[in-house]
Design brief:
Helices cover about 80% and strands about 0% of the residues. By secondary structure, the protein is mainly α.
Amino acid sequence: MPMRLLRNWWIPVIRGVFAIAFGVCVLVEPVSALAVIVLLFGAFAFANGIMAIIAALHRDVAHRGLLLLEGIAGAAVGVVTFISPPTTAVVLYSFIAAWAIVTGIMQIVTAIRWRKTIQNEIWLILAGISSTVFGVLLLALPLAGFLALAAMIGGFSIAWGIILIALGLRLRGVEKQLAAPGGAAAGAV
């Protein structure tokens, strides 16, 4: 595994913090304004996308194409949200579902490829599965009320954020292990 990837363990941590902050905001004020939730979602999707693009632009990142595609999709959803909040409010359900499914599938594919390098790497797989399941649930329950959607979005965002932080801390642990004396020999995680 490239050391640069391990040195950038903080990227999934920051993505996780953004996800948790977004989830808490949605749960605290679910009824106050759909516009606020739409804009918060746009900011979250954009920030998450930018962080994924930054991670993909590092030359040593394996499978950067998938991460770059995930980042572009997230940033694009964020931009569209800011350009047309009223329209986005109407189609937010579909935007979130599609984004969650695409992100989840890409994370699962990436995790499967990482498993060849890092044994027992479950956190990215869990993030991908949770994102995909969340998107499918949104599509399967289109008549669920806005409060249910807000609770699902808030709960998912918090859970996903925790998983991403755990992934980042796991990468940090691997980096520290490899950096320790004799770490290269002990690098089999």
